Structures are given as structure tokens and as C-alpha cells.
Amino acid sequence: MTVTAQPPAPAVGPDKAGGTRLVDRVFKLRELAILLVFLVMIGVTQAGNTEFLSEQGIKDLLLNATILVLVATGQALVVITRNVDLSVGSTLGITAFAAGDFLHAGGNSVVAIVLAVALGVGCGLLNGALVSLGQVPALVVTLGTLYVIRGIDSIWVGSRQITASDLPGGYVDFGSGGISAVPYLALIALAVLIAVAYYLRHFGGGRELYALGSNPEAARLAGIPVRRRILAAYTACGALAGLAGALYLARFGNVDSATGNGYELTVVSAVVVGGVAFTGGSGSVYGAALGALLLTSINSVLPALGVSSVWVLAINGVLLVLAIAVDRVVALRVAEALKKRAAFNRRSGRHG
Amino acid sequence: MREPPVLAVEGLDKSFGAVRALHGVSLQLHAGEAHALAGENGAGKSTLIKTLAGVHRPDAGTVLIDGEPVTLHGPADARDAGIAVIYQEPTLFPDLSVAENIFMGRQPRRSLGRIDHKAVKAAAAALFARLGVDLDPEQPARGLSIADQQIVEIAKALSFDARVLIMDEPTAALTGSEVARLFAVVRTLREQGSAILFISHRLEEIFGLCQRVTTLRDGALIASEPVEGLTEDDLVRRMVGRDLDELYPKQATDIGAVALSVRRLTREGVFTDVSFDVRRGEIVGLAGLVGAGRSEVARAVFGIDRRDAGTVEVDGRALVNGAPSAAMAAGLALVPEDRRAQGLVMGMSIERNIGLTGLRTTARAGLMDRRAERSRSLDWAVKLQVKYARIADAVGTLSGGNQQKVVLAKWLATGPRVLIVDEPTRGIDVGTKAEVHRLLSGLAADGVAVLMISSDLPEILGMADRVLVMHEGRLTAEIPRTEATEESVMAAATGRAA
User: Sorted alphabetically, which Pfam families does this protein's record hold (chain B) (predicted)?
Assistant: First the structure.
């Protein structure tokens, strides 16, 4: 249908784009805020310990963050769709061991990484299929697969262990090497991060993840293939956990049946601290990555400041609660502002 | 010979379990025609719409587009066939921008399949210009008024050149001027050759906007006829299958002592200096435009929101600020505006929903007495003539009108001395509406003080002994029944009163 007739244009409200700017600012602010906290923390630490930001210090910071950034990126994809994947720790553990086992048997390094990613894809497909077809809460389903995958890992691995001496020297060197202070692993994570962020912003499939997280019923009515998208998000999350597993092996060279135990909680914390809302539909993978960077840096900052590392967990927890509180307050403020604006427009007769 | 209808259905059957939602329904929609779909709640209107939208697959019967039978496998098929549906509750993505909402799944692309964000924004702006509305394409959908959300939905329909626009009770939550704007847009679309299928419980809207009307009752087709020559009574008779008794059965009552006394009630930035009394046996109507602060006053009186200043007394005893349980104990009951979100637990049974207000009174030694709960719930469900299969059925399976009766039952079971009802008949059919009115009238006759918030002017004028009017957070008028007219109430509601 075409409308050519022009009904009289209504009066324009004076603060036409006020809400947009406000909301835009808030969401950009959310990521800037974490970056700021991170920089302040690093600055304070550097002031207290000038050795902290040495070449090796920076390298350690980045290396520590790499694995978590990768897994958090994948997790963010899932959380944006209003779901969660608790099995990423188990996936990371089993893929790391599989890659190690393969290398130990004399396999090619590239093939080992591909193998880990493929195994991760398998785990992701399993989760995605259960969540999207079963219509069961993701929290419960992935809690189940967390134990299933960990169980299979334990049966298969038993008391075996992969150590750096089992691995080809090139693989371990790759894990610790880099271009001056920037490790290769961090470059990989950065590349993945940028690619995923670009996909989410500029491709239909990416926007649809936000849409179905924002309002699942509306997504279905808009003809978005909801199940396929959820399956895709889980598959990508599994693939990234698999890649993280391979890189974990390269970084630490030490894998057993307990590798990645409890990792899912750190990942979820990073995502939430990074401003990806658990209610779906908002946040960015950059935020999740910053959250990961912030959380892992605390591990390095405390010893550098001479604080016992027993504080790490408590501080992580405080950060998490703080992040949620900030998000909540900001959401309320934004809602209030939007409401006031709507009321103002109504009063000024915009609909007259 | 007319052209074949743009959209038609023939012999449509659809059942959900044992419930036959539609049987043998046929309907023809022609280009350039606004067609009303009338019927009580539960008559099958929503099922018919969802079938046309590709959400439900019919058990039997055909859907024809331009005279050709088609199968709609899903919402995307219906959209591709040029059918746009605007649901009662707009289906937007609150986190995404207005422009993204319009083009979700169909964004203009540039190289490599990437979304052309600039084109999306420009196209949305162009659509709003064509509709003559002022909306910012980059604004998030969250925080838009219902009226603006509907405009976004219409823009979405325009964006894929929909030839059929189906609107499910679009005016239920709109103010007068918003309805006028919506109708202006709809009339323009119709003149451009679109077919409109329009559902509304407001008969005057059907008569004001539509050329044809199809009436459903209990899932069956009753009539499909031109609106011209029909009277409102004819239409109501087709919908309910019987003559309605008087729609506003207001009984004369003995008005007694003051039961609810509100003095200088203020909530910063929401409403200011609101004072009024409600006496035993009296129904006081609270009128005003949407957003005037009426529901907010009710919430503060009941203690859901804290009041910043002022007092609330029930039977002369002051209520503690911000304590709904104290209000309940004092004999106050509030039937909220939004029954889905505030009044009921949709997944819970009728029995349990009614039982919620009696968790303390029906418990023995702190444990629930299931038998007492059931008999209390049954008692009230029967008194209010709730139509259900089993009392253990989830409330979500009932029609809107019956859900509203369950909310009423839930609160009446507390034996309130003061009853506040917020939009008691919004979105429910004429038959049930009359029952609710008779019920309220009967309660007043029994000495209950009733405060009725309503945006339905005939309802206010028909039911209230006294009309209070709010405008922008202030009480602007108090009009006795004999002097209350549409003009006097609207003048006060829009702030034009002297």
C-alpha cells in the first residue's frame, strides 16, 4: 500500500531526540565505565609498583585475559538471546585435553586446533538443540550438559595428564610467544572479538539475536527463525570455548580431567560485569571482553600491590554485585526519563 | 462483478485440544474496505486473526489470496503474502531502535549482505513522514506510548507494502486524540486501496470506521453484512445471541457514612493534593485521560506506592503509609488495571488465584487448608459466574472477560468495605461488561464503597453516583450524577474546565 496524502504534520516536540541521545550515551558509557575502572586500577597499581607495566607484565595481563575473553565473547552471544551456557567450562576442559591427546600422539598443531573447535561445535550443537527444541530453561539444560560433558571427560581422561613435555615445542612456544608485549594468543582473541562484534552489528543474523533476546514472542511473529538463531548462538559459543581450550593448552601446557572446572561462573561474571543484560537484547561483546579483562587483571594487580590473592574472589563478587546494581539504577533512570519525555510530548499535544 | 477478495477464508476449523475455537468460519476482505470483526471475548476472533497471520494452522478450510488458495506455514509466509497484523499488545523489540524494529529481518543490504544502517534509518524516516507522525527512527522502542508503538507497527506494515492490515483492538489503550490520529491514518490507507480488518469492543468505532461487519459467536460465523442499516442493538444481539438487559444497571442505593477518606494525597511529580471521600453504598467514578495519575492515586491509597504527603482513612482509621497488607486488613481491596501483569498469576489455577487473598484466613496453624481454599474459591467463582471447565485449570486458559471475573472474585472474597476497581471492563465483551456492572451495582447496594477508575465515559456516566475528574495529577472537578455529561467530564479531563 502507498500513502501519498500528507496528513497535517504535528507539532514537533522541543526535545525530539532527547531520549535517543540519553540511551545511546548510557550504553556507550557502560563500556567506557569498565574501561575507566580498568585504567584507574592499572594506573594505581603502576604507581604503587613501577615494575607492574614492564613488557613481561603487560604480556602476562593480556595472556591471562585471552582465554576468558574468547569464552566470554561466545557466552555474550548466548546471553544476548536471553539464554545462558553453563557448560563452557566442561567444553573448554574436554577440548583442551582432546587437542593435547592428539598432539601427544604426534598430530599436527593446526589440525589439533581445528579438532578442538570441532569438538566445541559439537557440544554447542548439543546445547543449542536441547534449548531450542526442548523449550526448557537454558539454565537447567546447560547445567545438565555441564555434568554430562565433564563426566565423559573424566571417564575418558581418567587420571591421565597432558604436560608441556608431551606437546611439540612449537605449540608451547606459540602459546607464550608474541610480537614484543602482545602475545599471539591475544591477537587471535582480538581478531575473533572484532569479527563477532562486526557480525552482530552489521549482519541480519546478528541483529536478530538481539531481537529475539529483546522480545522472543515478537521475534517469532516477525518471522525470525528463532530456533535456528538460538542453535547458531550456542554453536558459536561452543566453537569459541573449543578454540579457548586449544589456546589454554598452548598457554599452560598442562591439562587433566579437572581443567576448566568452575570456569563457567567466571565467564558469566565477566559477561555481566561487562554490561550484557541477563534479560537479553542488550550489551555488546566488547563489554563482555572488557569485563573479562577487568576480572583477570585483578589477579595480577593484587599480588603487585602486595595484597594477598585470597581477596580475589571477594573482589570479583563485589564487582559483580556492583555492576548489577549500576545496571539496575541506570535502567530505572532511563525508564523514568523516557516516561517523562512521553508525558511531556503528550501534554504538549504532539498527538493532537 | 467485483474483483476477487484480497483475502478470504472458507470453512475454517480450528480446535485446541477439546476446545473448538473456530468452526466453519468464512470471511471475505475486499480492497478499499474496512471490515469489522465483532464478537464477545472467546468468540474466536483472536484465533481467526492468528490463522490469517500464519501463527496457527487451520485444521480444515482454505485461506485464499486474490482468489487463489494458499498455505501459510508461518508468520513470514503471511508477511510475504502482504498481510500485516497489529496485535493488541504491540510486538516490538524494546532494546532496538524504532527503525530496526520496522525493518527487522528485511533490512536494506549493501555489499556482502551487510545491513545498510543509513538506508534503514532513512527509510524509516520516510515512512513516518508519509504517515505524518513525528517519531525519531533512532529512538529505542522502549518507552514509546502504546499509540506510538502502534504507529511503528503500521509503518512496518507499510514498509512491506501490505495490502491487508489486521488490527486487534488497537484503540483499547489509546486516548481520544490518539484514536483520532490512528483513524486518520487507517482511513488514508483504506482510500489507497488497502483492506483493513478491524477488531474493537467499542461499537461506536465499528460504526464510525467500517463498511462491513462480520460477527462471530462461540467460534461460529453469525453474520457478515454491511454496517449501513445496522443499529448498535442489532450488533449486540448478534454478538451475545440474546437481548441485553440494560447495559448500566445502576441501582438507587442508600448512601451512608464516609468509608474511604483521602486528604491532600501527594506523590512527588505524579499527583498533587488529591482529596476525596467515598461513602458506603456509593460508586464514585474517577475519570481522566490516560496518564492523568488516576491509577497512581489508587496505588498510593492502597499502599503499593508510598505517598509523600497526605492521609488515607478507612472507616475513620488512618492507614500506614506503603503497606498493602494493612490496607487489606482495614477492608480495602484494589482490582488493578492490568489483569495479566498485576491481577493474576496466569499459570496458576483459578482456585489458587482466588485463594491468594485468603492465604492467611484459610490457613490453620500456618498450614494451608486445601479444602477451605477450594470451597472459598468455588463459592466466588460460582457467584460471579466464571465460565471454566475445571476450577483447577490455569487462569491463562480463560477468555479476558472471565479472567477479569477471577480478579474480582479474588478481591471480593476478602469481603472488602472499600473496593477500588481500575478499568474494570477494559478489553472485555459487552455481555461480561454488563455482568461486571451489575455486580458493582449490587456491591454498592450491600453497602460497599466503590471507587471506579475508568476511561470509558459511558461507563462512568452510567455507573457513578459522583464523578471525580483528574487532569495532570490534580483533581480538577467533582460532578454529581445529575450534572455529569460527556462534555462536562471531558472539559475537566482536558483541563478546559473553568
Answer: ABC_tran
